[in-house]
């Protein structure tokens, strides 16, 4: 996740989940990234869901096979409990195969980021044929 405050970039890795044109993230309720996003909700992101190092006989022959996505959008913070629960369920489904109960104290300890993506591009190596 890339944010900007006073023309100073700030980049931080975060877990994500994707659904219906929205990128969801979650974090602690407070901190530098939350403060910056509240001041400037324009963000960008990079996701590399697949990668593999391909060895070569010489250092310059090594490469990486990958798929990546880069995008940008506007972040809002989910305040409604029902929507927050749905967003966190998207995370559970993204990272696990089971159903989990999301107790109220857990909901109260996290902030859910909802990014309406307005620009997205992808790249992969090797290129699709």
From TrEMBL:
Alphabetized PANTHER family for the sequence: 5-NITROIMIDAZOLE ANTIBIOTICS RESISTANCE PROTEIN, NIMA-FAMILY-RELATED PROTEIN-RELATED (PTHR34071), FLAVIN-NUCLEOTIDE-BINDING PROTEIN (PTHR34071:SF2)
The protein's name is Nitroimidazol reductase NimA, pyridoxamine 5'-phosphate oxidase superfamily
Q: Which organism is it from?
A: Acetomicrobium thermoterrenum DSM 13490
């Amino acid at each position: 996740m890339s944010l900007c405050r006073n023309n100073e970039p700030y980049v931080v890795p975060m877990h994500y989940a994707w659904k219906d044109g929205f990128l969801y993230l979650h974090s602690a309720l407070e901190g530098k990234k939350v403060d910056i996003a509240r001041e400037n909700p324009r963000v960008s992101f990079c996701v590399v869901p697949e990668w593999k190092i391909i060895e070569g006989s010489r250092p310059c022959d090594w490469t990486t096979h990958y798929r990546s996505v880069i995008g940008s959008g506007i972040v809002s913070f989910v305040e409604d409990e029902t929507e927050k629960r749905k967003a966190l369920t998207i995370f559970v489904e993204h990272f696990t195969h089971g159903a989990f109960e999301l107790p109220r104290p857990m909901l109260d300890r996290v902030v859910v980021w909802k990014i309406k993506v307005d620009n997205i591009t992808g790249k992969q190596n090797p290129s699709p044929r």
